[in-house]
Amino acid sequence: MLVSITSTTPDATDLGWLLHKHPDRVRSVDVSFGRAHVFFPEASAGRCTATLLVDVDPVALTRGREGGPAGLEPYVNDRPYAASSMLSVALGRLYGSALAGSCPQRPELVDRPLDLEVALPAVPVRGGAEVVRRLFEPLGYDTACTPLPLDPRFPRWGDSRYLALGLRGRHPVRRLLEHLFVLLPVLDDRKHYWIGQDEIDKLLRRGGAWLGVHPDRELITRRYLRSGSLVRQALARLADDPAADGDLVDRIHDEAEAEVERPLSLNEQRLRAVTAAVVAAGGGRVVDLGCGEGRLLQRLVREPAVTRLLGVDVSMAALERAARRLGLDEASERHRERVGVVQGALTYRDERFAGFDVATVVEVIEHLDPDRLDAFAEVLFGHAAPAIVILTTPNREYNVHFEGLHPGTRRVPARLRHGDHRFEWTRAELAAWCAAIGGRYGYEVELAPIGPDDPVTGPPTQMAVFRRQREGV
Fold this sequence. Notes:
Elements: E1 2-7, H1 14-19, E2 27-31, E3 34-43, E4 48-56, H2 58-62, H3 85-94, H4 96-99, E5 114-124, H5 128-136, E6 142-149, E7 159-171, H6 173-188, H7 198-207, H8 217-225, H9 228-238, H10 246-261, H11 266-280, E8 284-289, H12 295-300, E9 306-313, H13 316-326, H14 333-338, E10 339-343, E11 358-362, H15 373-384, E12 388-394, H16 427-441, E13 443-450, E14 461-468
Parallel strand pairs: 8-9, 8-11, 9-10, 11-12
Antiparallel strand pairs: 1-4, 1-5, 2-3, 3-4, 5-7, 6-7, 12-14, 13-14
């Protein structure tokens, strides 16, 4: 049983730093079912391969078992040869630091996407190549599946349930290891150990930023946990349900979006552009609608032109993090009079939103259902009616430049930047909406790009600055 991970990114031997393994040495450890080894068949500047070989002792698997099948099945089976939950355990044992995102000697490598290839010579797959594609392609992998015959000497017997599997994609190493750790037992649809309550936390921890937004998360959860009650608990924690763990879902979606946009430092560019627009508008009293964890607030509070600052969000957990970020618990009374955070919904009239000079709405409207946009516009432009509104939203046309985002097929639904996005507009769609809102509520609108402005697709983020027209003009 083995898996090989190859980096073809320049300075490919960085793979050794990330895996905490030296290419010139063999690392071996004992596991409960045998012994596992890591070695490097090749290690050059242009190509570096780390192979994990698991030598399974079938006799060791039977120790401590009571009952179970009679005969030779416990001793003669496919477990020593086919990728399974045993390989996942070995990955966690030998690559545990890499899975945790730890690389003290080269911390800048941890979140760096690398061009990676994975070779798994024998993988048991219930559902065949179609299931492989359903699980890996939405994560941004190209897949190559070669069926293995039952016996090459007897072609008429047909193919087995085993595939030689190849994966190719651009990911941080820790993210690739998470994908393998979770999905190998899902492909096999078996586990070699007892599945208990702690498996839910393990799945959500290793699923990290991607499980909550995966189109087949129910299949993954069902096969990984197997027990109906555990599956229901895990899905409840992943569901966008305020009665469940909705904050976990938000953080999963946010991390997934941040990883997509990280190569452009797009969030940094957004915050810088919006801060500059607030200052150019004269600052004054500013309300940040949909403030989340308060990253924009943290910047605006340092601007002398901003005299009053209020953050509004529907999530109490996000507001608690924003308050900590702003140091409100330890702040003076004078500071708390200038800066505050409150819970509120953006589609209902609220007197607390009124009386501000500037309103910022950063990456918020795409989280609203389209049929709620009119209510949102009435609250913001009709009721609160600030002199300036600064709004940003993704440009869907630019998604073709991001790894893993695609327009969708009959088999795989379209993947947007964030699992909670209800829509993402093109430049023309945003311009049409802004023109309609401006005409309805008496605002002039100026559109500006944020991020690299591609001549074909435009920028990754669109910013609209609304200025309320003076009466009689």
